[in-house]
């Protein structure tokens, strides 16, 4: 009887599990387990518990990925603009017709102004090597204008490479073995949840202290044992004062510096005047807070300095991250498991991308245009154009410059040029796609094969196709291959290969392949302890950490080519760690500093289209300190105006967001249309390059703040 009863109960069918990687622009590159339903759709998305860095934890926005892949607003068919640019009128066309029109427009641009009139513009909407970087192969084959990527990494990578000679460091999993984790210049609760996974593990298992250094009372600061909220762009001053205290109070490891650093005596002399009182006046911190921080890291040998991408958003960011890394060297933290300084493992991955990007076809005489200055490029700025002709055609993949790029009004003005042809390959009708002439629907990461690496950890990971895409959408690689055929370069090296063939070529130096990696899911390529901690010497030719910086002669992964040269006020960069007063300081007309920090439910402009993310974020707001609000007669929810020389936008006031008086924080890259006047926060951000190798200072803006009396 019991057997017959059991047979009458329907047995639930468990979904199959697929294995892949989060593709989005985040150093975590999380390994994922995905429920594959019997109807061919995905279900729940989870962090892979078997991956030692992801450790089963992912951010909420990726966990809700089914909401994005099956979103009713997803682009499904190619579309051609009808009527005025940006007017919102479209007609459906077929793939062949769309690609034919794009190729014809590119050939016309080339005929009128030369090959450099076409600019392939892309970035990290996917971090997949094949789908992101294949556009470079087309660029080189056609001798189109080059793309100097400057919007994200440059100042931080420059400063860390100046310090250590390479972009690598102590195993990020060692945070769990630390006695003090210093999370500096990043808000991982919102942006890199795995950092918190390992830091909290150290707290639970070892009683470790978590220090968080940020510019406002972020969700990560709220979880800290010691939270330090300083003024934007003053991190270098804090680091210098902590080093001053280390020398003063005997925390400095002189024996370590004598063996591994270049000029500790010169640094100590330089820091004599960089007292806690000096730093307090610059940072807004109290002397007691600075002393407490220096004492904690000075007396804790296993101090792990996790340095984030917030350093890239300031005009003095390269100097600031160099100073923070120098603190780890003064203390000798590198010698200990769970100690040292880490920003990125970018240099440890042995990937051969020559075929993928078409390295054999590179012409050094082709101009390189700065990604961050797209507004200036498209509006004819002679310096931004490197003194050459106009850009009259764009192919855009994996990025949304009409929302993301600085100087947004210039960007929009450029996109509205009647003589500019724009093709956008996208998943949604973004602010950029809305200004295009042709819009092509793109696959999502679960619908194609690709290869990933985790700059925030040490894994090379495979992301195989798990579900079939809609019949009418296409991969990035498909678009590049089809355009190559129409543009007469399909016979050049690297064309005609599938994703899997490209992955095999990229993995060849590691001795792996698509098939082999699919079996093991990822490769752990973390260097051994001595190499990772630079105990065999730092990566400079003399094996020494650089306290004394040569900002114009040191190689870096993102150093611009000779045709671009040094950028920004590089002559003003200090030789030793210091507070470099290169930030956009307040003035009488613009007494506030504005930072445009990431939101928890968005990732740059991605996820801003999903209902759950928008509901969690609410609406575009600006955080205002209560003292400033009271002085200006601003109440919670009031509409306020932020203005500077670049423009004016209106936002709702959020009183008491945790920044210091005189500092404003606007979280999240909302679609421009979500703002009261249809213009986003990047109306207010500048595109002047950061010294010495470029960058975009999104958190470094002076503005005025007034209550909108008309509203």
From TrEMBL:
- Superkingdom as given in the UniProt entry: Bacteria
Q: What GO molecular functions are on record for this protein? A: iron-sulfur cluster binding; metal ion binding; molybdopterin cofactor binding; oxidoreductase activity
Stretches assigned to the 4Fe-4S Mo/W bis-MGD-type domain: 15-73
Entry-linked SUPFAM superfamilies: ADC-like, Formate dehydrogenase/DMSO reductase, domains 1-3
Task: Provide the alphabetized UniProt keywords.
Answer: Iron, Iron-sulfur, Metal-binding
Give the matching InterPro entries.
Answer: Asp_de-COase-like_dom_sf, MoPterin_dinucl-bd_dom, Mopterin_OxRdtase, Mopterin_OxRdtase_4Fe-4S_dom, Prok_Mopterin_Oxidored, YoaE_C
Family membership noted in the UniProt record: Belongs to the prokaryotic molybdopterin-containing oxidoreductase family.
Q: What is this protein called?
A: Dehydrogenase
